[in-house]
Specification:
CATH architecture of the largest domain: Orthogonal Bundle
Distance between the termini: 36 Å
Number of strands: 3
Strand order of the largest sheet: 1-3-2
Structural class: mainly alpha
Largest sheet: 3 strands, antiparallel
Radius of gyration: 19 Å
């Protein structure tokens, strides 16, 4: 039994290390894909989030998992470069909404075209069924970790929590 527990711990630890490595690689590839367009992975993430709907900086930070100050800096740069703009927020006069401009939409389309070309290259070496199965497994693992995290936070703090990483 002890060997099985040790193997499970070892296997899950290896999974964590691989996910960290892939995350680092994705950020590096994202920076390389977006560099010719004068973007970064972080700016791409913000543009992608506001493409679906305008959001406050705080909401973006919660959705992306970055600190609010970091997202504020990114939003200000996107506005300065004409890729985004601030709009009045009818629900909160102090928290403006960040939204894409036409130039931002065009830039995001160019990034997506580059991303699609990159994915097509990768998929020549990968089995689509395995990628789909792994994606589903990662979603399952995400929800198990999320539920454990929420439960443990409640135990530690004795009640509800407000942590952006679980939203």
């Amino acid at each position: 039994m002890n060997k099985q527990v040790n193997q499970e711990t070892k296997s899950f630890n290896e999974l964590i290390l691989q996910i960290f490595a892939i995350d680092t690689l994705f950020l590096s590839v994202g920076d390389a894909l977006t560099a010719p367009l004068n973007l970064t992975s972080a700016r791409w993430k913000v543009l992608g989030k506001i493409a679906s709907q305008p959001q406050t900086v705080s909401a973006l930070a919660n959705n992306i998992g970055y600190a609010r100050q970091s997202v504020q800096r990114i939003a200000n740069l996107l506005v300065k470069n004409g890729l985004a703009e601030y709009l009045p927020n009818p629900q909160n006069k102090r928290a403006q909404l960040v939204t894409l401009t036409t130039q931002g939409e065009e830039k995001l389309l160019l990034v997506h075209k580059q991303q699609q070309a990159w994915i097509k290259r990768l998929m020549k070496a990968l089995d689509p069924k395995i990628v789909e199965a792994m994606t589903n497994q990662l979603k399952d693992i995400f929800y198990v970790i999320q539920e454990d995290y929420i439960r443990e936070l409640k135990n530690v703090k004795g009640g509800e929590h407000n942590d952006r990483r679980t939203k």
